[in-house]
Design brief:
mainly alpha, Arc Repressor Mutant, subunit A, three-stranded antiparallel beta sheet
């Protein structure tokens, strides 16, 4: 079970755009080193390490030492635990369906704007 304090840490970690981007990058390429990850941003390596500290405190990033390199991995479990707190099987099914409909409508609208609507 996730505590209120744990949830506060997760929500605080997710409140910053750079941290959300870090999680996206780690999802796409697990095991990146800090230096490799820092190259994706126009901020100092120290700033990235500070963001990583917040993410690690929230349990969203796991790091392991590999020689001189710190390998970083996304841990989505805290997000899933928050999701589980407010959903059940029934509501999760319908939330997924509504989300799929939203993405389809956005894609159709985007295709119409760019002239890719097949006409």
């Amino acid at each position: 079970m996730i505590t209120d304090s744990d949830m506060d840490a997760v929500f605080q970690a997710l409140s910053h755009g750079v941290r959300r981007t870090i999680l996206d990058l780690l999802r796409e390429r697990p095991g990146q080193g800090v230096g490799e990850l820092a190259k994706s941003f126009d901020v100092s390596r120290i700033a990235i390490m500070n963001h990583l500290a917040v993410l690690e405190k929230a349990g969203l990033v796991i790091s392991e030492k590999d020689g001189r390199v710190r390998r970083l991995y996304l841990n989505a479990a805290p997000i899933q635990m928050i999701h589980d707190r407010w959903t059940d099987e029934y509501s999760a099914f319908w939330a997924g369906r509504v989300t799929g409909l939203k993405y389809a409508a956005e894609a159709a609208a985007n295709n119409t704007k760019t002239g890719k609507d097949g006409t």
